[in-house]
Write a structure and sequence with these properties.
binds S-adenosylmethionine, single chain, 2 domains, six-stranded mixed sheet, Rossmann fold, 381 residues, globular, alpha/beta, DNA Methylase, Chain A, domain 2
Length: 381
């Protein structure tokens, strides 16, 4: 599967690798992967089948000494603590979310430790867009401060919608830091030509078992209404074949309600795993070696490959130099968080970030209250 030439000079490590969506994008841009880490055994199975590498399992057991030297640290750190569905679910179970979520939110600390100790030329972190608004922007502001203290004065934040590349609306947040203090400009994330249409990625004769049952079809409107009343985003959606789907989520395997394909004279159907692969911009030769349930989870958790490829190509331009955009980074402790060039309504970052919950291991940012680090939110559609 690897698309890189083995003598690519720029290297990266692929942390929280999932099934390697970030890896594919970086390889397409000419980088070479030298290490990967992924704990889930089914994701590992897919990763091994497609890349031939067995990832390191639990990142909690990983130290900087285990990591080979690399140019870019790449990580799509677990997003459930910040995603709309994740926050709603944890709240309904009376559980903490964000960094108060001991298991998942705290994995960021591990990333921070590895970045601080390895000092890669760049890092690229990926998460859901809900991270920008979680805890009224404080969580992201806090992350940026921590990264700045890890040695990266200028950290840029961008949002990218995959709509220009695949027939899916999927907005993801990227955090990019460059060690030489250059200010990173995100690419426009527009794709090329007309936005792709859903009908062009559908299978011609999908298996009838993907058609939903009469019972489920009758139940979905009431289900959607119940969730609407509870104020969360679950519902069901009949997709427009000439347009794009909603965001494919990791819970798609449950009932497929968020993306239903209309069919003439029949109940709608779910996407097939092959269609999910296309919806995420993975190449046709990418092998699906797990059950449908796992495949839906894996693609729903992953990234849209051409979006990452475009971002990685831009990172490569910076690393290949020559550098023209290096700036003097003002260390004005009172400067407000700088929020980017085009801002989505409701996606602004709070200027008063405060400090994060005390469970941050003693270093909760309170000692550095005023300067959240530089951030730009760009490329939003
Ligand atoms: C949002 S997904 C990243 C998906 C990836 N970007 C891709 O393209 O498939 C986060 C991944 O982190 C993994 N993960 C969670 N906790 C982990 C841990 N402690 N050690 C290693 N991987 C972990 C999950 O299994 C999941 O696959």
């Amino acid at each position: 599967m690897s698309t890189h030439s083995d003598n690519s000079s720029l290297t990266f490590v692929d942390l929280f690798a999932g099934i390697g969506g970030m890896r594919l994008g970086f390889e397409q841009a000419g980088f070479r992967c030298v290490f990967s880490c992924e704990r889930d055994k089914w994701a590992q199975k897919t990763y091994i089948s497609n890349f031939g590498d067995t990832p390191w399992s639990d990142i909690n057991d990983l130290t900087a000494a285990h990591l080979p030297d690399h140019d870019v640290l790449v990580a799509g750190f677990p997003c459930q603590p910040f995603s709309i569905a994740g926050v709603a679910k944890k709240a309904s179970l009376g559980r903490e979310h964000g960094f108060r979520d001991e298991g998942q939110g705290r994995l960021f600390f591990k990333l921070e430790e590895l970045i601080r100790e390895k000092q890669p030329k760049a890092f690229v972190l990926e998460n859901v867009r809900g991270l920008a608004t979680h805890n009224r922007g404080r969580t992201l502001g806090w992350i940026l401060r921590r990264l700045r203290r890890a040695g990266y004065e200028n950290v840029s934040v961008g949002l990218a919608n995959a709509r220009g590349y695949v027939p899916q609306n999927r907005v993801r947040l990227f955090i990019v830091g460059l060690r030489d203090n250059a200010e990173f400009e995100f690419p426009p994330f527009e794709g090329s030509g007309l936005p792709p249409r859903l009908r062009d990625i559908l299978e011609v004769n999908p298996d009838p078992r993907f058609t939903i049952t009469d019972r489920l079809w009758a139940y979905l409107p009431a289900y959607a209404e119940r969730h609407r009343q509870r104020g969360n985003g679950f519902g069901f959606g009949l997709a427009d074949l000439d347009g794009a789907t909603r965001t494919l989520s990791a819970r798609y395997h449950k009932d497929g309600a968020e993306i239903l394909i209309p069919q003439e004279g029949k109940n709608p159907r779910r996407l097939t795993p092959t269609e999910c692969r296309r919806l995420m911009g993975f190449p046709e030769e990418f092998k699906i070696v797990v059950s449908n349930t796992q495949a839906y989870r894996q693609f729903g958790n992953s990234v849209v490959v051409p979006v990452v490829a475009e971002l990685a190509a831009r990172v490569k331009e910076y690393l290949d130099g020559p550098r023209t955009t290096a700036i003097e980074c003002p260390l004005d402790e009172t400067a407000p968080l700088e929020v980017g060039t085009r801002e989505l309504p409701g996606l602004g970052l709070a200027k008063d970030e405060g400090s994060l919950p005390s469970a941050t291991g003693g270093d909760d940012g309170a000692a550095d209250p005023g300067r959240p680090g530089r951030a730009r939110l760009v490329g939003v559609r």
